[in-house]
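Reply to dn_fold:

You asked what the input looked like. This is it:
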Amino acid sequence: MAVKIRLARHGAKKAPYYRVVVADARNRRDGRLIEEVGRYNPCVEPSMIKLDLEKIDTWIANGAQPTDTVARLIETARKQA
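and this is what came back:
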C-alpha cells in the first residue's frame, strides 16, 4: 500500500486552510484518511503551521512519502522549533 503524507483542503471558497494527513495514495484528496498529523493555514499573516513532528517521523520511518509541499512545510516547522 502506497501511503502519502499530503494536504487535504478545507475551508471556504477563496479562504482555504489545509489539514496535513496520512492517506493511501489511491484515495481522493479530501477522501478517506488514516490519520491527521497537522494543520496549515496560508491565509493568516504569518502562515500558521502546526505539525506533530513525532507522528510524521514515525510515518516516514514506516515508509510514508511526503508530497513536495508537505516536505517544505516540515522543513519550515523544524526551523521554527
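The first strand starts at residue 3 and ends at 12.
Hope that clears it up.
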